[in-house]
Amino acid sequence: MRTYAERRCPVCKKNVSALLHDYGEITPENFNEKFGMNDLIIQPIKCPKCGQEGFPEYMTLYDGDKPIDRAKIGSRELPIVGGNVPYGVVHTHEEQAELERGMAKVMPLFEKQGENFWDGYCKFALENWKEHLIELTPNEFADAYQMIGWQPLSDTASVASWRRDASKRLTSDQNRAAFWRAANLHLIGEFLWDGDAPSWPVKKWAQEFGRSRVTYIVLHFPLPEELESVRSEKLSLVIRKKSGDTGVLFERIGYLGKELDKQRRRSEEMSTALLELRLEKAAVEEDLGRARREIQAIKNQKIVYERDTDDIRKVQEFKGLIRELRTEVKRLESLLPEPEKEPEEIEETAEEIIKEEPVSLDVLKGKTVAMFGILGERRDVSCRVVWHDGDQVDQALERLALDADVYVVLTRFISHEAMWRLKELAIDMDKPILFSRGTNTDIILTRVARLIHAK
Length: 455
Prior knowledge:
rod-shaped
């Protein structure tokens, strides 16, 4: 015997499975020793064709290559213990420990109270003997005949033949009670097996053995206090509507059971959606982290500019001149009686006087144009346009100048200190700089394109 976890790939529409446990050869003697003694770990299964991962939906038990039992994972019959997983029935370790304590008490409790249960069960059957006799299966008739010592009917006998023969032979209440007990030993054994009341498939049993007797067993079966909540839950799945006060109570139990089912389905759907969002978030965070590492690696690279000796000398002279001018500007500003309200207009440089010829903005694609002097909204047209107020030389100005490909100085709105610093940076990093008195972004971008085209 082997147990597999199975799911259907939503992309490939193929069944995907993964081996959970191989029990080896199982015999009636070592069945309890091998089966059900292992904790099975439920993990996502990857589709071998498309690589899509997802949690399994079913657990299937195979006898060789033949599937003999299948249960939905995260259902009443097969709950999940612990973990943040997208299933409807998930128990905490404390809840599971309490259930296991109760399951361990089922067999000892039945040994004490079993006879009282059988007496009540047989009286229940005798009250409506013909109706309850109809619920017996041919196998149950055959088992009862063998235990009583009667000659069984042929293997091809119909259930109606079994019923007619039993009705003729069973004439006293004592014989009927003994026959009923013998016929129901297998069903009671199913309820007793391993004390696993939380996994009773009562709907399946009701279809196979009859709703009436399954309902009685669920209602009266000896259970410890730890499993009484299980009784109410299982009862809600099999009870029928009845009249009177009892009927109202049963109807209420059934309603609560349906509501519990609805909430569990909703919980399962929300858990699945939450898991998908977490997987998407993890993928996005991984991409973001990779991008940040790449950006940091680029920033850490040392930028080397190759210039000839004359260029280097001129750059040093210009930088020295700019430093002197900046010092002089600061000295003159300190002599003013109050801060200037409007920066002094700066004459346009020769770089701004460009022949007015048609030029395509395609030269700006992929570039970042930084405008210094006022604040505006970031734009992404043929290029990326960013802004700085130009009031002072701060970290934001330095960072913007480092990232930008082209500088635009709005001469009527920028401080002298910021303007001279940008001139110095433009020379130092060999980046084009444009001086403009106007603020129309489209016109400025056209002039920037001409400047780059001319260079």
